[in-house]
Structure formats: C-alpha cells, structure tokens
Amino acid sequence: ILIGEANLLSLWTRKSPDYLALDTSLRAGAIRVYESDAALTKHWSYSRKLDDRIFSGPWPAHMAAREVSISPKELWVALRILQDEGQLLRACRVLIRMDNESSVRALNGRYSWSPAMSAIIEEFEVLERAIGCRVLAIHLAGIRNPFADKGSRLVDFAAVGDDGEVEQVADVAGGVVQAP
Questions:
Q1: I want to staple 107 with a disulfide (CB 3.0 to 4.6 A). Which of 48, 111, 129, 137 is the partner?
Q2: Is the separation of the CB atoms in 46 and 37 below 8 Å?
Q3: Cβ distance 44 to 77 under 8 Å?
C-alpha cells in the first residue's frame, strides 16, 4: 500500500487505477521505470528511465554458466535493480519493462515452478519489503528495448567492479562516464 496521486492510500496492482492510468502516472513521476535485459553471453544491463542512464556488468559466478536459462537471468536483473537502486525506490511504485514473458509472470505473480526463479523471487520480496517499494513488470519486446540491450550485448560497454560497485555507466549516446 502506497500513497497514490490523489494523496490517498493506493494499492499498486495490475488492476489499480494508477496502474491502469499508467501514462498519467509516469508523466507525474509517481512511478520509477526501468528496462532490463539479460544475455546468455557474459553481461546483464538495465536502463533507468529517470535519467536514461544504463548500468551493465558481467554475470556473478552463480549466474554465469551457459546452463542457466535466460528466464532466471532476466529475473535476476530485476533483483539487481532493487539492490543497486534501493535508495531511489523507497516508498515508490516501480515498473520494470522486461523482454522475457516468463520472468514478467513470475515477478507479477511472485511464483515460479522453477527452483532457480523461486529462489530469486524470495530474495526479491525480502528486499522489496525492506526498501518499502512495490514492483510490477510488463513485457517489452526485445526490439523495443535498445538501451538495455546495448549494455548486455556489448562486452566492453560498461563494467561493475569485483566488489559489486558500479565503476562506469554509459549515457544513451554510448559514451562512458565515471559514476558519481
């Protein structure tokens, strides 16, 4: 339960008025929007639409194996958004545009038959409660997700340090800048 646009308590679900009036809510800044992408290659990425910055990095060891299917990887990127952006998301509604329908269903339903995805969902829910935000996902076809795709597909695009801290980010023009 969060404060809606009319300063009233509001549920943030797929059927809530604020979600159904998504364009209005987005223009009002009531929702934080991200686009995410996972690649079967070496990288993940997401785009923060607030300022169109792209964050990218190599997979952690437990996600790097080619045997890990794309759906858990896509869901892990949503978890990474919460881990990285928690300070910006406190008491916010968050919309993540993902190009994997299985991950969208798992995130919105908070359930998956896959043990790997179920473990990520459990971790996601704990973090979501700790931050005090509510996250929903919608499907965005991969061709409509060029910014996040850029970060996950270009190997030398941007890096995350061994300590997990973002060392570089790139703007939408593709130039690399130092993170603040």
A1: 137
A2: yes
A3: yes
Q: At what angle do helices 70-89 and 115-131 cross, to 10 degrees?
A: 0
Residue appearing with tokens 């952690």: 60
Q: Say whether 63 sits in a helix, a strand or coil.
A: helix
Alpha helices in the chain (DSSP H): 17-20, 22-27, 61-64, 70-89, 101-109, 115-131, 146-153
End-to-end, the C-alpha distance of the chain in Å comes to: 32
Per-residue pLDDT tens digits for 97-149 = 888 899 999 999 999 999 999 999 999 999 999 999 999 998 887 665 555 55
Cα separation, 28 vs 13, in Å, equals 18
**Residue linked to tokens 């079967």:** 40
Q: How far is CA 61 from CA 43, 64, 66, 73, in A?
A: 12, 5, 11, 12
CB 169 within 8 A of CB 179: yes
Q: Output the pTM of the full model.
A: 0.73
